[in-house]
Specification:
2-enoyl-CoA Hydratase, Chain A, domain 1
């Protein structure tokens, strides 16, 4: 069953009517509703094209958070073989918001790391809605160090509203852990690519996405703060999230123009949640393209190009 977003309500009505007609036809085989259902399907398709061809930044946030959107676990299961998860930070605990381990991508050994939000109430609570604690970032550091030691490319899948802001996380050094993870991203001498598959929120995302190549799905978002958080700070009113989303320039299209990301991955019509297999396949085609760009670069070149990439952020926007 499709989970419709607020702005999709008119579409839900049309698709619902088409399904009602088909249900009636299944009950009464003498009924011929082929033309009526086809007309509704055409109307729904046109509306879907119109809605998703003109998404506002706030609506893109809603799409990026869609509960039926494929998550990190889905991508790993579909695109990677021989996945061997590795747990724990060897210091405090295992953070279930962060998953990662050794795997093969198209036969090539890699280390894959990502944030997992969960897909039902139980798993969302277990995964803390994709919000990592310090031990999650320290797990990522451990995996990146392993990749560096054995010369394995790193692939990260980013999908988090941000780092967990709880008291325990702060007591265990949340900001330090994020900073160390970001630092480690800049230090490893192996090919490093990242894809924002949903939300890229704050330092919690940067700590996974300080990569040689960064791509975003068409309707994903990436920003220093959520629109609600920004609105609460600037206007003392979280309901101004639409204005905040406009100001944050958080869409893949804006970020590509500004040179923050390197590529945009097209999503199926109506968003990744409407055709999960197609969205996963599109990401699967982008990862080898990004890795191919880095083939032939030695350790020093990989580190230097990554540092230059992030030290140069903002120059493209200023030039424009």
């Amino acid at each position: 069953m499709t989970n419709y977003l607020d702005f999709e309500k008119p579409l839900a009505e049309i698709e619902g009517k088409a399904e009602e007609l088909r249900a009636l036809a299944r009950q009464n085989e003498e009924m011929d509703i082929t033309d009526e259902a086809a007309a509704l399907d055409r109307k729904a398709a046109a509306m879907l094209d119109d809605l998703y061809g003109n998404l506002t930044p706030w609506r893109k946030c809603q799409v990026a958070r869609h509960p039926q959107r494929p998550h990190c676990k889905d991508y790993i299961e579909a695109l990677f073989t021989e996945y061997t998860p590795l747990a724990g930070d060897r210091n405090f605990a295992d953070d279930h918001a962060v998953m990662g381990g050794l795997a093969r991508f198209e036969g090539r050994p890699v280390v894959v790391i990502g944030q997992e939000k969960g897909d039902d109430t139980k798993s969302r609570i277990e995964r803390n809605f994709g919000m990592a604690r310090p031990e999650g970032y320290r797990k990522a550091i451990r995996l990146m160090e392993m990749a560096d030691k054995f010369g394995l490319p790193v692939v990260t899948l980013v999908d988090t509203p941000g780092a967990y802001p709880g008291k325990g996380a702060e007591e265990r050094g949340q900001s330090e852990a994020i900073a160390r993870s970001t630092e480690k991203c800049l230090q490893i001498g192996v090919p490093f690519v990242s894809v924002v598959i949903g939300e890229g929120g704050s330092g919690g995302a940067v700590a996974f996405a300080t990569a040689n190549r960064v791509a975003m799905l068409e309707h994903s978002v990436y920003s220093v703060i959520t629109p609600e958080g920004c609105a609460s700070i600037l206007w003392k009113d979280a309901e101004k999230m639409r204005e905040a989303a406009e100001a944050l320039r958080l869409t893949a299209q804006d970020l590509h123009k500004l040179g923050i990301i390197d590529a945009i991955i097209d999503e199926p019509r109506g968003g990744a949640h409407r055709d999960r297999d197609a969205a996963i396949s599109a990401v699967g085609k982008m990862i080898p393209e990004m890795l191919k760009d880095l083939d032939g670069m030695n350790r020093k070149q990989l580190i230097a190009s990554r540092r230059e990439k992030f030290l140069g952020l903002g120059k493209k926007g200023l030039a424009a």
